[in-house]
Fold:
Amino acid sequence: MNCQEFIDFIMAYLDGELPDESRIVFRQHLDLCPPCEQYLDGYVKAVELGKRCTEGASLPADVPDALVDAILKARRAAES
Amino acid sequence: MDEGTATPNAADEADLVARLKAGNEEAYEQFVRENIGRMLAVARRMLRKEADAHDAVQDAFLSAYKAIDRFEGGSKLSTWLHRILVNAALMKIRSAKRRKNEVSIEDLLPRYRDDGHQIDPPTGWEHTAEAAAQNREVRELVRASIDRLPETHRTVLLLRDIEQLSTEEAAQQLEVSTNVIKTRLHRARQALKTLLDPHLSGHGA
Structure:
């Protein structure tokens, strides 16, 4: 396995979708190749950061009254 | 998707659904007021323009109202509504014009020599994701970097990593195969890493 193949397999490895044989080869490459070890570390952190940094934005938002009114009105219009 | 507001118990929810199905106007208003805060937060995450986020939320509530007879209670009402909103937001994304500052995904993937080794081996990131995410500038940088991804890839990253849809659900929403979802997600994550690398490796964060 070279670095390109290693990087191509990262997601399958993290999802536990690599067959046993490929996982062993993947782990061997990981043990021997510091740049790929760093790549994997950065990849995992990038995914984690993506989740963490959008979490704050997932708290219920302040909602403009006009939007609530528009939504209630749209239902009444759809009824009539 | 339990994000903040009080979770109604199953009996209350069944009662609300029954009243919604009967066309009760107060029930609809309760349904809107209990869910709109979370809905707007999700819409803002997926759409860049505030007006588009409002439109998507409005479209989603109307779609939910029209489809309430088909809600069978197999999932929670809020989860069902979340899926409808994601669908409404995706329709907005599809109809939006391509952005000018969009980068090409190929430019953000690792480059390799003929022997398969990386041309630009990475330097490690100094901080854990948890520590880096404490920094306000980093949080803004990460959100801006996600926004810079090509739309087809940004959408898959949002659906899978942020909105937590399964590969199958994302494939269904985007009408592509599960393999396309997997490929795009892997590339989107690599591209996000590339955009963050200069800021977080070594002396960054």
Summary: The CA atoms of residues 148 and 197 of chain B lie 14 Å apart. Chain B touches chain A through 59 residues (CB under 8 Å). Residues 105-200 of chain B form a domain with the Arc Repressor Mutant, subunit A fold (CATH 1.10.10.10). The two ends of chain B are 29 Å apart (CA to CA).
